[in-house]
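Support reply, case 0932

Customer input (verbatim):
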Amino acid sequence: AMATIPARADDGDPSAPTVRAAAGHAALTTDDLGRFRTQVQLNGRGPYTFLLDTAATASMLAPSVAVDRQRRSGASTRVTGGIGSAARRTVSIDTYRSGLFVRHNETMTLLPGLSSDGILGMNAFGSQRIEFDLAAREAKAGVSGPTPEDFLATQGALQHGILVVDVVIDGVQAKAVIDTGAPYNIGNPQLRAALGLKPGDPRVIASETLVDSFGQQTPASKATLGKLAIGAVVFGQPAIRFAEMPVFH
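Our regenerated output:
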């Protein structure tokens, strides 16, 4: 999960991004951790491979990507990752395009250490509907509307542009972020305690280390539980890592 907080207000800024609804589709690939990636163009160049991250509030760009006519905006943005946060510089991109959207005057944060050319954040979709077809390896975007036939729906809430839903894990009710940028299910220590996972519990295996986009690390434990339900959809035998991560706050 990545969130950005502008260092200054941009209200009334004539260079703010403009959006043209472009209902369409884009092919998806996956990286070594199973996270979704898609291709974008920046100022007519590319394609560049971006991680499609539903828990990122804005788009990020690897500093190694050289794009014609990119302009340093001079603004500084604080980026919060799973474990740490840092102030980063930004650049302005004239045209930001994929099969899902077209945006202009896009401000992107330069983020070193990315495993792809950039991160495609949810601000690119505004009030649109976005759909992931995992079998067809395709993402679709279009006008928001009623739940299509043969779909199951569950109520969610947008918090800072990030989708949060109610889940039930082995009878324990919790809130969860839908995060395609996370390679694992991750819970906080409060969830671990609510599940009754105490030290020495045979369901908990040896601890491991989680690493965020800044390279910062935190210890984690892992347990395989009975089931995880999101509304009427039930996932059996979910593996969940547990760690104390500032992003939960």
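We compared this against your earlier run and they match. Two observations from our side: The longest helix spans residues 189-194. The first strand starts at residue 3 and ends at 6. Please reopen the case if you see a mismatch on your end.
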